[in-house]
Amino acid sequence: MRKMLLVVVLASYTMATFAQLSMDVLGETYIIDFTGFAGGGFSPAPDDGQLDSDTWSVTGLSDGDLDFGATGTTGDFARGATTGFVTSGGVYAADVLGNQALLIQPTADDFTPGSFVLRAINNTASVIGELEVFYTLYINNDQARSSSYNFSYSYDNETWIDMADLDYTSPEAATPIPTTEDRETTLIGLTWGAGEFFYLRWTGDDVGGSGSRDEIALDDITLTPDAGAPAIAAGFSTTSLSAGEGDGSVSFSINLTGEADCTLNISVDAGSTADNGADYTLADPTALSFTVGSGTSELLSIPITDDTEVEDDESIILLLSVASGACILGAADELEITIIDNDEPVAIEVDIADVTGEDADGVAISDGELVTMTGVVYGYNLRVDGLEFTLIDATAGIKVFSFSESFGYTPNEGDEVRLTGFITQFNGLTEIEPEELELLSTGNPLKIPTTVTVLSEATESDLVTFSGTCAVVDPAQWLGDGSSFNVDLDCGGTPVQMRIDAQVDLAAVALPDTILEVTGIGGQFDPSVPYLEGYQIFPRYTADLVVQPPVAVATTLLPEFRTYPNPATSVLQIEAAAWDAITVLDVQGKLMWTQGAGVHATQLDVAQWPAGNYLLQVTYHGKTTTAQVQVN
Question: What's the pTM value of the predicted model, to 2 decimals?
Answer without folding.
Answer: 0.45
